[in-house]
Design goal:
This protein is an alpha+beta fold and 124 residues long. A hairpin with a 3-residue loop joins β4 and β5. The longest helix is centred in the first third of the chain and has 20 residues. The protein has a five-stranded mixed beta sheet, covered by helices on one side.
Length: 124
Amino acid sequence: MIVNLDSSEVLVCEILGRLRALTARSAGVKDTKVGKQNGDDSDVMGIKAEYAFAKHFNVFPDLGLTPRSGSADGILEGYAYDIKSTDYANGNLLATRKINPDVDMYVLCIVSKTQVDIKGYVMK
C-alpha cells in the first residue's frame, strides 16, 4: 500500500529525523543501521516510514525526541510494531542486530522522497 506524503509532511519528517539523529548520537545511542548510507539519512527515512504507517492506519506517530534504543515505534490493534525502512525497491525484511523484547511485529517500508510503500509485516 502506497502512502503519499505532501511537502509539509516531508519537511516535518526531515526535521524530526535529523533532530532524532542528533539527540541519539549526543546521548551515546549506538547507530545500528544496516548498509552504507549516512546515519542521519537513515533516521529521516525511518521517521518517514513511521509517519506514513501511522497516517495510513490512523494512529498517532511517536514524534518524541528522547534518546532511545529498542522499544516499539507504536501500537496497532494491541500489537507493538517496529518499522524497518529502506530505499531499495527490492528491499527485504531482515533479522535485526539486536533483540527487541518490546515488539510484537516488524513492518517493512520502502521509502522515496514523497512516497512510502508499506510492503508487509512479520510477527516476531
